[in-house]
Design brief:
By secondary structure, the protein is an alpha/beta fold. The protein contains 8 helices and 11 strands.
Length: 228
């Protein structure tokens, strides 16, 4: 896919670099020459432009890419103006970063395809990590429901997967298991790799280091961790 990323600060830079590494065509743009220089060798093209200027913005192939991402966060006025210009130019698919509730509320008025809240998402992930106190990753589905991946508690080790009864006891649906395997790299160093089991191994015992992927309400995950 082809993306334009406007704003190459820390967030935009990482976004551009990671998407490019995955094989996507990235066109970057920023008013800072140093920011453009730092990314230009890692993306298809990068422009030094003031995207708040309508004529400068027209340099970008806005209507021949899949998504335009406005990654500007620190300059509230610039972010809103760029989004307004993109809407004026009838760009169909716009993602924009919001750094706080007011910024998000204003962006919502533009009826964008997606509003990105990286700071909020990062804070929520940290809250979950601190709340559960374990090695876990969560993905929010809506206000109440999450998909959560976590290392199996020690008390589960040795039980058959079918004996865990997560659904009956905690209303959590188990949707995957990652099995830990020991491998040795080219330097002879022993490492642990996790591989997804395509079918839930109900007749297999849970091993230390395995990870479970479950779906359910956040409060049910809380109840689960308190119970164990």
């Amino acid at each position: 896919m082809r993306y334009i990323i406007i704003g190459l600060g820390n967030y935009g830079h990482v976004l551009a670099e990671e998407l490019s590494a995955l094989g996507h065509e990235i066109i970057g743009a920023d008013i800072s020459e140093s920011r453009v220089d730092s990314i230009k060798d890692k993306v298809a093209t990068a422009f030094v432009i003031d995207a708040t200027d309508e004529q400068s913005l027209s340099v970008l192939p806005l209507n021949s890419v899949d998504i335009v991402i406005v990654a500007i966060g620190e300059n509230f006025g610039a972010s809103i103006r760029v989004v307004a210009l993109l809407k004026q130019k009838k760009v169909s698919h716009i993602f924009a970063r919001a750094i706080d509730a007011v910024h998000k509320a204003v962006l919502e008025a533009f009826d964008l395809e997606r509003i990105l809240t990286p700071e909020e998402d990062a804070a929520r992930s940290l809250v979950q990590l601190l709340d559960f106190g374990t090695n876990m990753e969560g993905f929010r589905i809506d206000q109440d429901y999450y998909v959560v991946k976590f290392t199996v508690p020690k008390k589960f080790v040795g039980y058959f997967v079918s004996e865990l009864n997560l659904d009956e006891e905690f209303h959590l649906k188990m949707i995957g298991l990652k099995r830990a395997n020991k491998v040795t790299n080219c330097l002879g160093i022993s490492l642990t790799e996790l591989h997804v089991k395509n079918e839930l191994p109900g007749n297999e015992k849970v091993e230390e280091g395995d990870e479970l992927v479950c779906y359910g309400r956040y409060r049910d995950f809380q109840a689960f961790w308190k119970a164990i």
